[in-house]
Write a structure and sequence with these properties.
This protein is of the alpha+beta class. It has 3 helices and 4 strands.
Amino acid sequence: MEMPDLQQAPNGKELFFKVKGQGKIHIVTIPRELFDDELSNEASISERKAWVELHIEEIMAAYRAKTEIGSVRVPFNKIQVRTE
């Protein structure tokens, strides 16, 4: 799967990317809490990006479930999706 264009959130601890679909643009945010739980609160941005690359399939599955009314398994249930 092609990696989305990851961007760093202003708080410096979250990453997000945009997905175009269903005539809308969705912003998918991988929150700090997820990274803190899965890596550590001291993880660098490069470590966070590497974790996203390793788990992009699960992240995209969570995105699809959240936009199509499905279930999301832990820890990916922490992923946030909003419409731009």
